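hi!! sorry for the late reply, been swamped w classes. u asked for the two structures so here they r. pasted raw, havent cleaned anything up. first the sequence of the first protein and right below it the C-alpha cells
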Amino acid sequence: MLTGPVRATIDDAVREAVGEELRKSGGGPTLPGMERIARLEAVVEHLDKSMADIKSDMKEMRAEIKTEAKSTRTTMIVTSVGSVLAVIATLLSLQSVNLSAQANMLSAFQSGLTALQSKPTEPPKP
C-alpha cells in the first residue's frame, strides 16, 4: 500500500479526475458510491452461496430420483413377469378343466356305446 507523498499525489489526482472529494473510511479513501458497490458485492456473494446450496441440493435430488427410478423399473419388471405367470397358470388350469370335461364326456359316451352293444334293441312298447 502506498504512503507518504506518493499517496497524497495519487489522492489529489483522483480528486481532480472524479471532481468529488474522497471520503476517508476504515480502509482508506473511498469514492462516493463505494458503499453501494460494497453492498452489491455482499449481495452477489450471498447469491453465490445460495446457488452453491441449490446446486448441491439438485445433485442430491438427482441421485434420489435415479435410485427411485431403478426401484420403479424393478417393480414394473417383477409385476409384468408375475402377470404373465398368472395368465399362463390360468390357461393351464382352464386346459386341465377342459381335459377333465372331455374325459368325462368320452367315458360317458363309451359307457353308452357299451350299454347299447350288450343289450339287444327292443322296440319301444306302446
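now the second protein. again sequence first, C-alpha cells right under
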Amino acid sequence: MVQYLGTTSQPGANPVLRVQQIWEVRLKRTELAPWFYNRYFRYTWPMDYSYPLLQKVFNHYYKEGADVSKAKLYSCMHLLAPQIEMYKYFIKFGFSPSNIIALGKIYSSNIEAIEELRSLGVSVVQPDFDGRAFDTTHAENCKKIALEIGDTEQNIVLDDGGFLIHEARSKPVRFAVEQTSSGFRKLENDCPQFPIFNVARSKTKLTQESPLIARQIFERVVDYAKENGLESPKVVIVGLGPIGEATLQIFKSNSFDTTGFDKETTKTELLSALLKNKPDIVIGATGSPLFSSDDVKELEGNHIYHLVSVSSSDREYPVASYRSAEGVHEVVRYENLRFVNNGFPISFKGSKNELTPVEIEKTIALLMGSVFHGVCNKSQESGFVEVPEELQDLINS
C-alpha cells in the first residue's frame, strides 16, 4: 500500500487517475480554508488574505525608524500577487514609489499584478516576448537598468536570478538581495564590493520552500499528463538538488515509474538512458543547459518525449531554436519532442497566484525582511552573507 497525504491506494492502479482521487479526498478534508479546488489541481485564492507574516516582519523593522526616503530600489522579481504585497510594504516603510524600479519576467509576470503595481506609482519594466532565449533578452534588460544606477550610496538591488546584481557589480550599491540558487551560482565568482543577502541558501527557504515547489511541480506534471492522454507515464528527473530530489520522492511515493539522474551524469550517459528507456516525461531541474540542438537531434524518432523545465528561465532545453508564433505558455513542437510550457518552468503559467499566498509568504518575508534588515544595519562585508538569524527566527516563530 502506498500512502500519500492520508489516502491509500492499491499498487498497480493508474497513477494519474489515482492522484486525482487522492487530491479530491485531501481537498475535502483540508483545513486550509479559504483556498478551494477548481478543476483538478487548480487553485484560486480570495483577494482579502491579510499576509500576517509580512505585517509581522514590517512591524519588527519599522520601529527602527530607518530613513529610506532617498533610497533607490532596483528590483527584478516574478510580478505576482504576493510580490505586489511586498512592494506595498516597501512603500509603507518609506520608499518613494518613484524610486522603485521593478523588472518583470516574461514567463512569470501576471498582467493584473503588473497593472496594480503601476497604479502604486512604481516604475514597472515588463518586456515583450520576442521568442529569443530568455537569458539573452533578460541580460540586455538588466544591463539597461543597471546603467540607471546613480552615484549614491542609497542604491539597493533586489534580484531573482542574479542577472541584475551581476550588471550592478561595479556600481555604488549599498547591499543586494538574491532569491535563487541559480543566481547564487551565477554570482559566486563576481567579487562585488557590497554584501549580498543569500536568501537562496537560507535554511528556511531550502527546507520549507523546496517541498512546496516540488508538490506544485508534481501536480502540474500530472495535470499535463492527464490532458495529453499519458495514463501511466514514465518519468525521468535530471538534477537532484533540493527541488529535484523532493520532486523525485513525490513521484516515487505515488507509484510512478520514475528515475533520477544527478547533474553530474554525462550528457552521453543521459542521452543513452533516454534512448534506451524511452521515458514519456523528462523533467530538467539542473538550472543549466541540459541539451544542445545537436543533442536534441539524437532523440529524434517515433517515441514522443515531453520535456519539462522546473528551473529558472528556458535554459534547460534549446527551445528558442524551435519557436515560431507560440504564446509564452504554449507547447512548442519539434519532430517527436514537446517542449512543455514553451520551455519555461512549469511552476509559472501566468496566474496571479502560482502557489497560495500562505505557502509562498515565508519566501516573500525573507526577501522583504532582508531589505529592511539591510537598511536598518550597515554592513562592511562584501560578497554573499547569510540571511540574519534574527530574521529567520522571526519568520519561523
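hope this helps!! also noticed smth abt the second:
The domain at 52-204+356-396 is CATH 3.40.50.1480 (Rossmann fold).
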